[in-house]
């Protein structure tokens, strides 16, 4: 095998003799152009991150970006054919979502492909075109249906706080949902504009901060769409999906950022799982009133700093002089990570625009950053629903009081510095 002298991108087969670089455009290309923001998907063009045919590529990066390395292991170890083409038979959405006017506004959606769920159908001809040996179109969104069973909901039913209706909430306590998984698709000029920076500054930082993982970011200014190697978003819809966009029907929304420690394993150091479950409860109640509820789950573990940083911060908090306390809560994160938060909520409202949401009656969140991002995106918010005090675990008092003091929405009194220092967590 021979290697080219610079750049680092894909070859189409392990068996081929040379590496084909994608860092520079060579010869003719028959890539289909992308007109970001066009309301007609055919005019907009498909997203093609083909690894088989570099000449078809019209984006930087690969599909399911966060899992590209596992795909590489599967190919390298011989268990996956590098030329495997997905069979999309029967994979289309169980319910249609959109199109909505927001899909045709290049400023409203910049971090996902609004046509991601219907790409398989809309571009079926492009996929099967024999002249171009078939462009590789792969959905970036999948929509399915599920019954979910959450122990807390069964307790709520027993306590009479939730009512079984037989359709949304079943007698055995299971909840019927429609759910959508969304992979990120970034339109770089739009992302840059959203963050008030220029596109070159964004491209350069993405290239450098990934250790030079995607040379095209700096060598291919003609490619404007990037499939970043990060986690995506999952949407859970509760109740009548049509009610989401009906201005006469109530809508509840919780936008929740991943917290593996609490969401899955029930850690008592934060409020994440209890607040998530409360969000689901409010969504069920709103759906039972004839409206709908939407839970948006973003894979941004530990304020998008990652779980290693998060656990380091836990240790720093517990071991600092004076112990874990609310007045030093954000400081300890900043000491380890350099920032308090890396979530960039500015990109979060895209998923709400994808769902066609124009107003939220009940936002189950106390985050001022989420509130500001949603209202700045032109979506009106009625009521803000804080976490009920009885749901806050004992050791999470430090977090909740620190957040309230920093500007999070609260219906009760915000503690002054002295009182804040008195809110203490466990040692270990
Ligand atoms: Zn948490």
Description:
The protein is of the alpha/beta class. Helix content is 30%, strand content 13%. The protein contains 17 helices and ten strands. It has helices at 41-44, 68-76, 119-122, 124-128, 151-159, 188-194, 199-209, 216-219, 260-263, 272-288, 301-304, 307-319, 329-337, 349-354, 368-376, 397-405, 417-422; strands at residues 60-61, 141-148, 175-182, 186-187, 225-227, 233-239, 251-257, 292-298, 359-363, 380-384. The strands form two sheets. It has a seven-stranded mixed beta sheet with strand order 2-3-6-8-7-9-10, with helices on both faces. A three-stranded mixed beta sheet has the order 1-5-4. The termini are far apart. Residues 1-13 have low confidence and may be disordered. It binds zinc ion. Zinc ion is lined by residues 259, 261-262, 270, 272.
Question: What's a concise summary of this model?
Answer:
The chain has 428 residues and is of the alpha/beta class.
Task: Give the topology.
Blueprint: H1 41-44, E1 60-61, H2 68-76, H3 119-122, H4 124-128, E2 141-148, H5 151-159, E3 175-182, E4 186-187, H6 188-194, H7 199-209, H8 216-219, E5 225-227, E6 233-239, E7 251-257, H9 260-263, H10 272-288, E8 292-298, H11 301-304, H12 307-319, H13 329-337, H14 349-354, E9 359-363, H15 368-376, E10 380-384, H16 397-405, H17 417-422
Parallel strand pairs: 1-5, 7-8, 7-9, 9-10
Antiparallel strand pairs: 2-3, 3-6, 4-5, 6-8
């Amino acid at each position: 095998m021979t290697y080219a002298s610079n750049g680092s991108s894909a070859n189409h087969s392990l068996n081929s003799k040379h590496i084909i670089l994608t860092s520079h455009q060579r010869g003719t290309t028959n890539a289909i152009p992308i007109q970001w923001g066009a309301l007609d998907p055919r005019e907009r063009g498909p997203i093609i991150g083909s690894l088989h045919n570099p000449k078809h590529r019209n984006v930087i990066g690969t599909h399911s970006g966060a899992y590209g390395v596992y795909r590489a292991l599967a190919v390298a170890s011989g268990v996956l054919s590098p030329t495997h083409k997905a069979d999309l038979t029967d994979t289309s959405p169980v319910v249609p979502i959109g199109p909505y006017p927001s899909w045709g506004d290049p400023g409203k959606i910049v971090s996902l492909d609004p046509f991601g769920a219907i790409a398989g159908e809309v571009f079926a001809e492009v996929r099967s075109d024999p002249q171009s040996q078939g462009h590789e179109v792969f959905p970036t969104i999948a929509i399915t249906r599920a019954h979910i069973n959450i122990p807390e909901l069964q307790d709520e039913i027993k306590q009479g706080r939730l009512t079984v209706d037989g359709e949304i909430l079943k007698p055995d306590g299971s909840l019927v949902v429609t759910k959508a998984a969304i992979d990120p698709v970034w339109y770089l000029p739009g992302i840059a504009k959203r963050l008030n920076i220029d596109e070159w500054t964004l491209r350069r930082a993405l290239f450098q901060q990934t250790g030079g993982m995607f040379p095209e970011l700096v060598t291919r200014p003609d490619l404007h769409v990037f499939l970043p190697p990060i986690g995506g978003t999952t949407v859970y819809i509760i109740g009548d999906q049509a009610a989401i966009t009906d201005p006469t029907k109530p809508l509840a929304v919780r936008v929740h950022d991943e917290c593996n420690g609490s969401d899955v394993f029930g850690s008592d150091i934060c409020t994440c799982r209890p607040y998530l479950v409360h969000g689901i409860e409010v969504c069920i109640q709103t759906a039972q009133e004839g409206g709908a509820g939407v839970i948006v789950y973003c894979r941004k573990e530990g304020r998008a700093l990652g779980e290693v940083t998060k656990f380091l911060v836990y240790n720093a908090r517990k071991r600092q002089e004076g112990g874990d306390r609310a007045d030093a809560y954000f400081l300890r994160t900043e000491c380890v990570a350099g920032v308090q938060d890396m979530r960039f909520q500015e990109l979060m409202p895209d998923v709400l625009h994808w769902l066609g949401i124009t107003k939220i009656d009940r936002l189950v969140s106390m985050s001022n950053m989420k509130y500001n991002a949603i209202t700045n995106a032109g979506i009106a918010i009625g009521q803000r629903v804080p976490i009920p005090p009885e749901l806050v675990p004992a050791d999470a008092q430090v977090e909740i009081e620190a957040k309230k003091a920093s500007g999070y929405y609260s219906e009760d009194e915000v503690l002054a510095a002295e009182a804040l220092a008195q809110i203490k967590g466990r040692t270990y």
